[in-house]
Amino acid sequence: MNPCNLNQLGVTRAAPWAVGHFNIHNQEFIRAVVKAAESERSPAILAVGMMSVKYMGLEPLISACRSISRETSIPVAVHLDHARDLDIVKEALELGINSVMFDGSSLDFEDNVEKTTSVVQMAHEHGATAEGEIGIVPHGTASVSQAEMTDPALAVEFAERTGVDYLAVSLGSVHGMKSAGTSLDQGLLQQLHEQVPVPLVLHGASGVIDEQITMAIKNGIRKINVNTGLKVVLKSFLSKRLTEEPESDLLEDLGQGIDAVSESVAVRMRLFGSSNRT
């Protein structure tokens, strides 16, 4: 079965839980997520982002994700995150990725619809799922303006015209936050869940406080993206480890780093309600 697309992970629009999307950057991160998925009996998404593609390469990352995901019976999807170029979407699908997210949030509405529709068609031809985005989830700012958040009427039109399987929405979260302190517009989320016909996605979850995550799942979020928080965990662990054990073997350091990231992923899975779903 592995790797699989998002529709094969078991989460639905009506489900009372969310699946975790965890950005991976090398083999250590991939193994950490898969280890957590096994220990928690939780489906998981290995997400290949553009910065990681620049760091390691698209084919090596997808190949590693596909290979390691086959080692477990737990449902694991391999997903392309925040693609803005149709060529890289096409290449990823040809390399066997199972899900793609096109980020047209910076485009005008009609351009976003047109390009996202093309991505959906390409994905479905390959048996993959497709995610789009309406509204803006910014990077590294203190707050999100009301104008940047998702308009429910536009979200409904976007979902219906593009045929996306999942829709990323803007509720007040911010990409790249290294600590959690953000709240979400839960009223807006309730409107979106009531009106939009596909499962909703929360980006920038590393900066959102746990109570808001729990409430967001209750109000309709079904896929939650985590990236920066896992980088912080590994960097903090290795900084401490290399200071305290300067003579230790690097492979042992990395092995223990995998364990630290894996435990952080497992905590997220329990928060998302995805544990013991397989």
* Overall mean pLDDT: 93
Distance N terminus to C terminus? Answer: 13 Å
The number of domains: 1
Q: Provide the helix percentage.
A: 40-55%
The sequence of SSEs as H and E is EHEHHEHEHEHEHEHEHH
Number of strands: 8
The CATH topology turns out to be: TIM Barrel
Q: Please identify, by name, the CATH architecture.
A: Alpha-Beta Barrel
Physical arrangement of strands within the biggest beta sheet: 1-2-3-4-5-6-7-8
Question: Could you describe the 3D structure shown?
Answer:
The structure is a single chain. This protein is an alpha/beta fold and 278 residues long. The protein has one domain (6-272): TIM Barrel, CATH 3.20.20.70. The protein has ten helices and eight strands. Strands 1-2-3-4-5-6-7-8 form an eight-stranded parallel β-barrel, surrounded by ten helices. Helix 6 (152-162) links the parallel strand 5 (129-134) and strand 6. Helix 2 (50-56) packs across helix 3. The longest helix is centred in the C-terminal third of the chain and has 23 residues, at 250-272.
